[in-house]
Design goal:
Structural class: alpha/beta
CATH superfamily: P-loop containing nucleotide triphosphate hydrolases
Helix content: 55-70%
Strand content: 5-15%
Number of domains: 1
Largest sheet: 5 strands, parallel
Order of helices and strands: EHEHHEHHEHHEH
């Protein structure tokens, strides 16, 4: 059986982790081996970089931020994701290069093509078989985060105009690559979203 690389994307509070877990459970029940990862933080080195880029208080220059994400991504793909896919496993990952294009490109107002190019170089052009975008209005996302009482996160703490740019960046990416993206409204019922995701993933299984 061939391996797959499936990524979940979306604004903060969109429910990516919930859907990733439901999909993982479904695939395991079908006899597939599932490897879970996340960016930043899918590896031991990634966890250290995650502390710097997400939880460090104080300014980080936008280009430096983009490069930290790319460094985490390069190590994650080389040591965890690519080997798993090559041995036939299914990797389900919370965020990938589309997050950098949306957050550092659109959100930080850097050149999206340059940000994408850095990640493609870092990963040797490794792209997902499927990217699931859970689209959420940024005001609803803010309400969900506030209700969750989570640990301080540099990106989540940004103002609404930043998150509006991020959402627009994501939708532009999905429009440019409709064959790779599955875009779903994050406000739909959890089980309905899970069913739509299973249907799309079923078409990729061999």
């Amino acid at each position: 059986m061939s391996g797959l690389f499936i990524t979940f994307e979306g604004g903060d509070g969109s429910g990516k982790s919930t859907q990733a877990e439901l999909l993982s459970e479904w695939l395991v029940a079908r006899g597939r081996t599932v490897v879970r990862s996340r960016e930043p933080g899918g590896t031991e080195l990634g966890d250290e970089l995650r502390e710097i880029v997400l939880h460090r208080r104080g300014h980080i220059a936008p280009r430096a931020e983009a490069l930290i994400y790319a460094a985490d991504r390069a190590h994650n793909i080389a040591t965890k994701v690519r080997p798993a896919v090559e041995r036939g496993d299914i990797v389900i990952q919370d965020r990938y290069l589309d997050s950098s294009v949306a957050y550092q490109g659109a959100g930080r107002v850097l050149d999206p093509d340059e940000v994408r190019g850095i990640s493609l170089w870092a990963t040797e052009d490794f792209l997902p078989d499927l990217t699931i975008l859970l689209d959420l209005d940024e005001t609803i996302g803010r309400e969900r985060l506030d209700a969750g009482n989570k640990r301080y996160d540099r990106l989540e703490a940004e103002k609404s105009d930043f998150h509006a740019r991020v959402r627009a960046g994501y939708l532009a990416l999905a429009e440019a690559e409709p064959e790779r993206f599955l875009v779903l409204p994050a406000t739909d019922p959890i089980e309905g979203l899970a069913a739509a995701i299973r249907e799309r993933v079923s078409s990729l299984l061999q």
